[in-house]
Q: What sequence folds into this?
C-alpha cells in the first residue's frame, strides 16, 4: 500500500440537513395545516422547480371543491359536479366584493413586446399597467378576446387590486403538439393576470379570479416579476389553465387561497418549464423512463431524456446494450442543473447534459460484493485474495477477476483504461474518487494520493477533486474513479452554487 500523502482540496461528505420544510420537485406539495405560514412559488429551474408550500388554511385542488385540509394536485377533471356549480360554491365561501371605487386608477387596453427567457413575445391586455402604479378597489374586470390578458403588468409597473372580480374568456387561438403552445403555457398570452419583468409587481387580495378558456392561467409571473395573491378564490375550467404559474425566475407568494382547476393539464400550482430525465444506461431504466416521458408528453409536459454511459469497463453487459451509466452521472446532474438554473430551455439543458456525457469516463472495482435487498444475496462471490474489476452500481459483477492489488495498483488498473478511452492530455479535469459504500474515507484518500501523482505524470491538469461516497452499491467494498474533461463553459457551470443533500458548494 502506498503511504498517505497530502492531497489537493477535496469535498467531504456533508452532514444530512435536519430541515424538512422544503421539498424539491416539479409539482405541488402539501404542508401541515397548522404551519401558519404562506407559501412561496418560485420558478427556479428546468430540472428542479423550487416549490416550497407552507399554506395557512389554503385549499388548492383539481376537479373538486369543498375539500378540507391542505393539498395541491393536478390532472384531468375527476369530479361529477358541473363547473358552474363548483364555481358558485367556491365564490360563496370566498371574499366579499363591492362596486368599483371612484378612486380606481383609470386603465386602458394596450400591448407590450419584449424578450422573456430566450424568446421575443408580444402580449396584449384589456387593462395595461406599463411602468405606473395602479390601485384597484372593487369592480368587475374581464376580457373576452382570444389571446388577450385581463391585466398586463410590464415595464416595472405595480398593480394592487382588492375586493374585485376578474374574468377571462376567449380560447387560445394556437395549438401546440400537446394542447396549447408555449406562448400560453409559459408566457401568459391568454391568462387573467400576467406580470412580466424585473421590478414589475402585482398584489391580488380578496378577489375572485375566474377563467373559462384554454391556455388561461389565473395568475402568471415571468421574467423575474413578482406577484402576491392573498385571500382569493381562483377557478379555471379550460385546458392548460393553471391556477398560479411562475416561469423564467418569476415569483408568486400566496396564502389563504381556494384554487380549483378543471380540464387537461390544469395544475393548481405550476413551475413546469420542462423536465429532463437523466437516465443511466440500463435496459430496464431506459424502458421505464421512455414510457414515463411519453406519458408526460401526453399530459402536455415538455419532457426529454439523456442516457449516461460513462463506464469504460464494458461495451455490453448482462444489463445493458452499450456502456453502463455509473458515477459520472453525478456530474451530469450538477452541470445540467446549473444550466437549467440559468433559465435555459429544455433543448439547451439537454445539449449541456450531452456535452458532459461525451467528456466523462469512469471505472470501478470491488473487494467485496453488495447484497441487493430484493435478491437477498450477494450478486457475486470473491475469494479472500480476489478483486472484481469493472463492477456496476447495482451489484453486477465486473468484467474480470484478478488477484488482490495494492491501492496504487488498483488505482492504476482503473485509470489506464479511462485515459486510453479519451484524450485528457493537457486538459483540465475534475477527479471523482467515489466510494462504493463500505470503503473507509481514509482509504479513498490513499487512492486519491496516487491518482494525483499519476495524472500529473501523464500531463493531465487537475482542476478540482471530489473524494467520498457519491454513487454507491449499498455495502459494497471498493471504489470507482471518474474523470470529467472540462471546457470553460463546463467549468463555469461546475463552479455554480449547489445546495443538495450530497453536494453543497
A:
Amino acid at each position: 500500500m502506498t503511504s498517505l500523502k497530502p492531497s489537493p482540496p477535496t469535498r467531504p461528505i456533508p452532514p444530512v440537513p435536519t430541515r424538512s420544510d422544503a421539498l424539491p420537485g416539479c409539482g405541488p406539495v402539501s404542508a401541515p395545516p397548522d404551519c401558519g405560514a404562506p407559501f412561496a412559488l418560485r420558478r427556479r429551474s428546468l430540472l428542479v422547480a423550487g416549490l416550497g408550500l407552507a399554506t395557512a388554511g389554503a385549499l388548492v385542488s383539481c376537479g373538486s371543491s369543498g375539500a378540507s385540509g391542505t393539498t395541491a394536485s393536478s390532472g384531468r377533471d375527476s369530479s361529477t359536479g358541473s363547473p358552474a356549480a363548483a364555481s358558485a360554491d367556491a365564490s360563496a365561501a370566498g371574499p366579499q366584493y363591492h362596486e368599483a371605487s371612484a378612486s380606481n386608477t383609470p386603465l386602458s387596453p394596450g400591448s407590450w413586446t419584449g424578450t422573456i427567457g430566450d424568446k421575443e413575445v408580444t402580449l396584449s391586455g384589456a387593462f395595461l399597467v406599463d411602468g405606473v402604479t395602479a390601485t384597484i378597489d372593487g369592480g368587475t374586470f374581464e376580457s373576452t378576446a382570444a389571446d388577450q390578458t385581463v391585466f398586463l403588468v410590464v415595464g416595472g409597473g405595480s398593480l394592487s387590486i382588492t375586493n374585485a372580480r376578474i374574468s377571462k374568456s376567449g380560447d387560445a387561438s394556437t395549438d401546440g403538439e400537446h394542447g396549447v403552445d408555449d406562448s400560453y403555457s409559459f408566457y401568459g398570452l391568454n391568462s387573467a393576470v400576467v406580470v412580466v419583468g424585473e421590478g414589475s409587481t402585482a398584489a391580488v387580495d380578496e378577489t375572485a379570479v375566474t377563467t373559462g378558456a384554454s391556455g388561461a392561467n389565473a395568475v402568471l409571473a415571468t421574467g423575474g416579476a413578482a406577484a402576491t395573491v392573498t385571500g382569493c378564490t381562483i377557478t379555471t375550467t379550460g385546458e392548460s389553465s393553471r391556477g398560479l404559474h411562475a416561469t423564467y425566475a418569476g415569483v408568486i407568494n400566496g396564502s389563504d387561497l381556494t384554487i380549483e382547476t378543471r380540464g387537461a393539464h390544469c395544475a393548481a400550482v405550476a413551475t413546469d418549464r420542462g423536465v429532463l430525465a437523466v437516465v443511466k444506461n440500463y435496459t430496464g431504466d431506459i424502458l421505464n423512463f421512455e414510457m414515463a416521458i411519453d406519458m408526460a408528453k401526453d399530459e402536455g409536459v415538455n419532457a426529454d431524456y439523456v442516457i449516461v454511459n460513462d463506464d469504460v469497463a464494458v461495451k455490453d453487459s448482462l444489463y445493458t446494450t452499450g456502456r453502463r451509466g455509473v458515477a459520472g452521472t453525478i456530474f451530469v446532474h450538477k452541470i445540467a442543473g446549473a444550466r437549467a438554473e440559468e433559465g435555459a430551455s429544455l433543448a439547451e439543458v439537454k445539449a449541456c447534459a450531452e456535452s458532459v456525457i461525451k467528456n466523462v469516463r469512469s471505472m470501478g472495482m470491488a473487494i467485496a460484493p453488495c447484497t441487493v435487498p430484493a435478491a437477498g444475496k450477494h450478486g457475486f462471490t470473491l475469494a479472500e485474495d480476489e478483486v472484481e474489476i469493472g463492477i456496476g452500481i447495482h451489484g453486477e459483477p465486473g468484467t474480470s477477476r484478478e488477484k488482490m492489488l495494492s491501492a496504487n495498483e488498483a488505482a492504476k488498473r482503473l485509470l489506464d483504461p479511462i485515459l486510453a478511452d479519451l484524450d485528457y492530455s493537457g486538459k483540465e479535469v475534475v477527479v471523482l474518487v467515489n466510494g462504493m459504500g463500505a470503503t473507509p474515507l481514509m482509504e479513498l484518500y490513499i487512492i486519491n494520493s496516487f491518482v494525483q501523482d499519476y495524472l500529473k505524470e501523464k500531463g493531465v491538469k487537475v482542476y478540482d477533486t471530489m473524494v467520498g461516497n457519491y454513487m454507491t452499491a449499498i455495502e459494497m467494498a471498493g471504489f470507482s474513479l471518474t474523470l470529467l474533461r472540462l471546457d470553460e463553459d463546463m467549468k463555469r457551470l461546475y463552479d455554480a452554487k449547489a445546495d443538495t443533500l450530497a453536494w453543497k458548494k
